[in-house]
């Protein structure tokens, strides 16, 4: 059955042992009471309703003890009938205990009904009641006992000094049972009623592994009712009773069953225990809730983590989109500015180029005009020298004109093919490109132009004016520096990029 229950959740079984102050509290009529220390052990069961609350019960054996002490105290003083030489006399019997100690104990079977509360960090508190059934009781004592007696009237001597006249102190046939008994022992069985306790326990719960825990704590059991069975005063005896039939066999009683001057020595006994307890528990119990809470906590943590990651991703995406938009805007602005600068540069470049060509034309016209003037002067001079030599002069003039220097330009044919070219200019009009190529060819350069549409991020149609061809980039650069100084914006490019 235990294995079947253990297989289920929410149950916990335990074995425990404890000890400490475990006493029988009472206030004696004479003598003194001192508390005792004892133990308890048992079996427990708990059923948990939640991670924090549960009900606990079980069975436990509890041991209680106390001590009753007397020092040179008169415990019996009464008249009894005594047979003296066949005659019945009245004997006044007295008993006195000195250095007497009586140990008292009780064993109870207890059933707790407790409410258990525990925290997530391992502390626990239990509170409730316990019902107890008395299993056994016992009292045993030891001390120096003095029994004295006197026949007849009032005693007028100290009965506790061995000099009372006519009063033998035991040892004779008639006076057995009187005298001093050192180290006299007593033994009595006691009966107690059931008890009801209010109980509390608190401490630390240590979890070693799934289903196994160790409790360490303190407990307090306070008895609410008197467990001493009530007796009529006439049913109580003297602590030491004289035996008229056999005086040497006198009886000794415990403090729980004795009276003095028609009053009981003890009227109320209340059990109480305070001590420490160690309990080993086995079962799912609160671990079931702990695992569920852990699973829920992990699930909730995972959900929170995923939500945080989602929010972070959304934030990063938003930031990336904003950064991309900003980058696009900046790039668009940069490209627009660059295109504007390029257009302005084109205008400036074309104007400068036109100015340069105009200046070159003007210089050619002036040179040719000067040459023409010189020739005319020479012809006129020849004409005045001889009229008869008109034909010869005309022939000479013709020869002279034929011998005048002309601008013969030989084209540089050393660079017919190669991987590298020199870009001289880029213009918007094809006619302009053709004029520049003709001008470069007249100077002996292997010039040409290529049409290109929408190059790169630019839109429109352009014409590239280039000079080629060179096998090495270094050759192209040296050629440009040597022969193209007037073209300040030249640059090097691959031949394969003519129309790209």
Class inferred from helices and paired strands: alpha+beta
Mean pLDDT equals: 81
- Can you summarize the main beta sheet? 8 strands, antiparallel, barrel
Helix-strand string: HEEEEEEEEEEEEEEEHHEHEEHE
| Oligomeric state of this protein | single chain
Please mark out the parts with pLDDT under 50 across 5 or more consecutive residues, or reply none: 155-174, 389-415
How many domains in all? 3
Instruction: Provide the gyration radius in Å.
Output: 67 Å
What is the overall silhouette? rod-shaped
In terms of DSSP E residues, the strand content is: 35-45%
Number of strands: 19
Kindly state the percentage of residues in helix: 25-40%
Measured between the Cα atoms of the first and last residue, the distance is: 92 Å
Q: Strands of the biggest beta sheet: in what spatial order? A: 1-3-4-6-7-9-10-15
Number of helices: 5
Layout of helices and strands, plus pairs?
Layout: H1 2-6, E1 11-25, E2 32-35, E3 37-48, E4 53-70, E5 73-84, E6 87-118, E7 123-151, E8 179-189, E9 195-209, E10 212-223, E11 240-241, E12 251-252, E13 259-260, E14 263-264, E15 270-282, H2 286-385, H3 390-403, E16 420-427, H4 430-442, E17 447-453, E18 461-470, H5 473-483, E19 491-494
Q: Your description of this structure?
A:
The protein has helices at 2-6, 286-385, 390-403, 430-442, 473-483, and strands spanning 11-25, 32-35, 37-48, 53-70, 73-84, 87-118, 123-151, 179-189, 195-209, 212-223, 240-241, 251-252, 259-260, 263-264, 270-282, 420-427, 447-453, 461-470, 491-494. A hairpin with a 2-residue loop joins strand 9 (195-209) and strand 10 (212-223). It is rod-shaped and about 210 Å long. It is built from 5 helices and 19 strands. The model is unreliable at 155-174 and 389-415 (pLDDT under 50). Helix 2 (286-385) runs antiparallel to helix 3 (390-403). It is α+β, with helices and mostly antiparallel strands. It has 3 domains: 2-284; 306-403; 420-497, Alpha-Beta Plaits (2-Layer Sandwich), CATH 3.30.70.1070. 29% of the residues lie in helices and 42% in strands. The two termini are 92 Å apart. Strands 1-3-4-6-7-9-10-15 form an 8-stranded antiparallel beta barrel. It has a 4-stranded antiparallel beta sheet with strand order 17-18-16-19.
